[in-house]
Design brief:
21% strand; Rossmann fold; single chain
Length: 347
């Protein structure tokens, strides 16, 4: 069942140098209980998309619907039927945890805004803190007394306490050490099984995207260039940008060597002065005159959506690869070792 629909969303930021087109007609569906990864380089628009979905900023054009109700503005996101059902977990826990307030009180703070009776707060706090493996004594501490991993668990508990249907996870593990990162990813999977919550997982860490997500949207200069099942995109990318992005992945096991793939060259165009044709044209080894003169649409191609005129040529160049089967085994082993080495979730 579709829980979120983003349709033709445009976001423009006004600057002294000109209009920055952060999002260019983005469309995306999220299904109930599923995880969609959003990947791309810095400036691709992935964080802007996340902030639009949770209502922190408004789109210039397009629509966003949650459970068939429009939420394309900060006013709509506060509607009683929607408020609390969509939550955001920040990259830095300090953005959601007030340093002057004890952790337990900070986790419960969203309940006050929803008008939830205080008599039920303790039971809700106990439930979510157990799910994220926070000890009772840690709830009485201040954020500065917790480790980075514990702070992030508190941030996730704060998001969960309103019983959300959708959580936007914006780089939730990038500030953590490898052990804490493995623990958080494992915990997020357990939470999804228990709560049935959907995730939008925004990250530059492709290894964690491969591990956690069901589908992946690859973004470049404010638009989705490829969307489909994560396993299929990682095994055989159909867009030159996806291929270049995946070639940069860092494997936990240094003995596994990635095959060479299509190489991109040149500078990324300015979002203030985007090309009239394909935004990747000046960097792509498959570029043609059609790519220079026309902008490709995001269209179905076999088992996914791709924004490329040369998608058939890509099928000949990029053959299905088993390297990610080795990668999956390596990363699963890595996650297991990291999680078990800590003995318990608490770092």
């Amino acid at each position: 069942m579709k829980i979120l629909e983003v349709k033709d969303v445009v976001k423009i930021f006004k600057t002294k140098g000109g209009d920055v087109r952060a999002l260019n007609g983005v469309s995306l569906d999220i299904n109930e209980g599923k995880t969609v990864g959003v990947v791309g380089e810095s400036g691709s628009g992935k964080t802007t998309l996340g902030r639009l979905i949770v209502g922190l900023i408004d789109p210039n054009k397009g629509s966003i619907s949650f459970e068939q109700r429009s939420i394309g503005s900060k006013v709509n996101i506060r509607h009683p039927d929607i408020r609390g059902k969509i939550q955001l977990v920040f990259q830095e826990p300090s953005e959601s945890l007030d340093p002057r307030i004890k952790v337990g009180d900070s986790i419960c703070e969203p309940l006050k805004g929803l008008g939830v009776e205080k008599s039920s707060w303790n039971s809700k706090l106990k439930n979510v803190s157990e799910k994220v493996s926070l000890e009772e004594e840690q709830l009485s501490m201040y954020p500065s007394q917790l480790s980075a991993g514990q702070q992030q668990r508190a941030g996730i508990a704060r998001a969960l306490i309103t019983d959300p249907k959708l959580i936007v996870l914006d780089e939730p593990t990038s500030a953590l050490d490898p052990t804490a990162r493995a623990e958080i990813l494992s915990m997020l999977q357990d939470v999804q099984k228990d709560f049935g919550v959907s995730y939008i997982y925004i990250s530059h860490d492709l290894s964690t995207v491969r591990y956690l997500t069901d589908e992946t949207a690859v973004m470049y200069l404010g638009e989705i260039v490829e969307f489909g099942e994560t396993s299929k995109i990682f095994t055989r990318p159909s867009h030159p940008y996806s291929t270049g992005l995946l070639s940069s992945i860092l494997l936990p096991d240094p003995d596994i060597v990635m095959d060479e793939s299509l190489e991109l060259s040149g500078e990324i165009p300015s979002p203030i002065n985007l090309p009239k044709g394909c935004f990747l044209e000046s960097r792509c080894p498959l570029s043609t005159k059609e790519c220079q003169d026309n902008h490709p649409d995001l269209i179905p191609s076999d088992d996914r959506l791709v924004r490329c005129f040369e998608v058939e040529k890509m099928k000949d160049i990029v053959q299905p690869s088993s390297k990610f089967e080795d990668f999956d085994k390596s990363f699963d082993d890595f996650m297991t070792k990291r999680s078990s080495s800590s003995g318990q979730l608490g770092n």
